[in-house]
Specification:
Number of helices: 1
Number of strands: 5
Shape: globular
Order of helices and strands: EEHEEE
Largest sheet: 3 strands, antiparallel
Radius of gyration: 15 Å
């Protein structure tokens, strides 16, 4: 993995998610989110994966920053065309 920093970490109570990133990786993540938003606005149902190298990716860093936090190895982000999310697409 390159020298960029982007981690998602849970606190020890699993009540909060902390995102740590350097400017380059935060821009990368922001651009990925904007791309998902643009696709969702067109009525598509996009998603993207962000993973550590151990999980087959390169988007996330493998070293946690918080002493007592838990590193998340795989983040999957969905884009939905409406605020209803998956509800119109669920099978009944």
């Amino acid at each position: 993995m390159d020298n960029h920093l982007l981690t998602f970490e849970l606190d020890k109570e699993s009540e909060q998610i902390f995102i740590h990133g350097d400017p380059a990786r935060l821009e990368y993540f922001a651009n990925a989110l904007l791309k998902l938003a643009a696709q969702a606005k067109k009525g598509e149902l996009p998603h993207d994966h962000f993973m550590t190298e151990e999980w087959g990716g390169y988007e996330l860093s493998s070293e946690p920053l918080a002493e007592d936090g838990k590193l998340i190895n795989h983040v999957k982000v969905y884009g939905w065309p409406t605020a209803e999310g998956a509800k119109p697409h669920e099978e009944t």
